[in-house]
ABC transporter ATP-binding protein
Amino acid sequence: MMQIKDVSVFYESKKEKVEALRHISFKAENDDICAIIGPSGCGKTTLLNVLSGIIKNYEGKVLLNAEELNPHIHKIGFIPQNFGLLPWKTVKKNCLLPFKIRGEIVEKETVEKMDLMMKRLNINEFQNRFPSELSGGQKQRVSIVRTFLMKPDLLLMDEAFSALDAIIREEAQELFLEIWNENKMTTFFVTHSIDEALYMGKKIIVMSNTPGEIIEVIDNNLFNNKNYKIDKDYSKLFSHIKNLIRRGWNK
Ligand code: ADP
Ligand code: MG
């Protein structure tokens, strides 16, 4: 379980002090996948940076399985908007990089699992290519394989689908959920798409404009439903979230 308790973040420079997050509290179970949505600049990336351990200077507490969050103890998987692949390493080496960084031996089973996942995602024949030789969608799938292979305790994604064009994006969301359902782990993803939040978020965390506060957490019953757009609750939920964001924007 992930517990975020009363987290506040300030950015301080010589000239000013910016309050980016104010009193964020939230609990997520180990099989929760949570969408974070809110207006631009409300602190979504800041929150992910706290959860990934990049920002260490914050008020409050973040606990993962009752232990204070620590990137040296916990395995944290991160899929950034640009997919975070190293351009000078092949697809295969990129996927095995987390093991190398941790100084772990790559077991035969790991390589087999990688091959299998790559086949599922249709990128197996690209193992020896470099990232620059792949399309955006293919890069993203490499990033997904790399992340699931390391079996993280916590998975974070910052607008990981927004760089893809519409048709590929829907397919990528579906593939991601398929793999996620087989390897469930506490997951937080930032999105600015209400549709993406409704399809992929078991819980939807709606944030207000700066300083970012949680204005509502929605238990989303459209989660994982491929036909969510024709569900009777869709338009009601969509406008509810839209109104929350609008109100949060004007606060
Ligand atoms: P989002 O991801 O929701 O668009 P961010 O988390 O990037 O928002 O930023 C939240 C707020 O903090 C914004 O007002 C932004 O200008 C400010 N901010 C972000 N990073 C820094 C920084 N390194 N120094 C000062 N202010 C920052
Ligand atoms: Mg951001």
Remarks:
- The mean pLDDT is 93.
- The pocket of magnesium ion (ligand 2) is lined by residues 44-45 (CB under 6 Å).
- Residues 166-182 form the longest helix (17 residues).
- The CA atoms of residues 31 and 185 lie 5 Å apart.
